[in-house]
Amino acid sequence: MNPPEVASARRILIVKPSSLGDIVHTLPLLALLRQQAPGAEIRWLVNELWAPLLQGHPLLDGVIEFPRQALRGLRAPLGFVEWVRRQSDWRPDLAIDVQGLLRSLLLARAFGPRKLIGYSDAREGARFGFDEVVETGLAQSPHAVDRYLSLAGHFGWEIPRPLPFPLPSGKAPEGSETLPSRFVLLHPFSRGRGKSLEVSQVAELCQRLQGIPIVLAGRADVSLGEGLEVSNWLNRTSLPELIWLLERAAFTVSVDSGPMHLAAAVSSRVLSLHTWSDPVKVGPYPDDAFAWKAGSIRSMQDWRASGTDLQGTRGKGEFPSEAIPAVADFVRAAAAGGDGHPLPSKGGTVPT
Fold it and tell me: Cα(244)–Cα(69) distance, rounded to whole angstroms?
């Protein structure tokens, strides 16, 4: 397939069911596809858990929700066949399997696309089911964003810079009027093994940032105890509401997680904390965002230029408590506003 054929496609399907971070990484590809095929009807196949991130997206014409949780167990094959039958009235001219797994290949094929494109690093033998394979070995970097944008090199498209990460509008959560006008957002917990901070580390970090309004966000089944002076929004926000919070944060500190990538899509004012994961591969994408790894805080531009073998510094996957003071000092300095004014004390106002 060549670029004119893409531009003439009437219906395009993006297959990227999960996870949150990977969906965020695919947003620049969506923007590129919309640019190349402005008149196409573009839909995105996504697990229903992550559908709220894409619903109402200005560059999409539809979101196809896959009921992953419901299609489990012995009845899953029958349920899948029934789900496919309900989708049979929409057949894409072009489908792009960004997920690159056998499951996503089957999902893409279920729509009967006239052409299915996938990536060379697809797993579980999925690449052998594609009509056309995009080589990811020539990507600008090993980061998922650049691997997905290998499609541009495959077709000879120019990639826009700065890279867009289009998101639907955020939604103000109930009670948001009680929040300070500017704050540091802290996302310290993750479902990923060995990525979360300990509650004691969260408490120490907040104590060292005393005087700066802190909003705690994300999902975690933890007890923070008494005396922690933060606005606790754990388990209280939907994805659109989390976007709203991130858009208003003066700075975000997050462990390696989907919400970290969401924060980096909204702003480069992010510090990502990495234990065993490699920030060059899975850190925040903007060059001027920051990542902590193995005792160092560097910009992503510097991490990418360092040539350090970060994959060999996995350790036990636990964030060291002795790093908390340095993180706090960095955040206190970095959280100054663009006008040079520091963040106000809790309850204060921001100079304009």
Answer: 27
Q: Establish whether the linkage from the previous residue to 104 is cis, with ω within 30° of 0.
A: no
pLDDT surpassing 50 at residue 96: yes
Superfamily designation of domain 3-70+77-155: Glycogen Phosphorylase B; (3.40.50.2000)
Give the C-alpha separation, 213 to 120, whole Å. 46
Q: What is the reported pLDDT for 316?
A: 54
What kind of fold does domain 176-334 have according to CATH?
Rossmann fold (3.40.50)
Read off the tokens for 326. 């340095």
**Residue pair 241/171 in contact by the 8 Å Cβ criterion:** yes
Residues 6+ apart with CB under 8 A from 69: 48, 49
CB atoms within 10 A of CB 42: 20
178-227 per-position pLDDT tens digit: 999 889 999 999 987 789 999 999 999 999 999 999 999 999 998 887 77
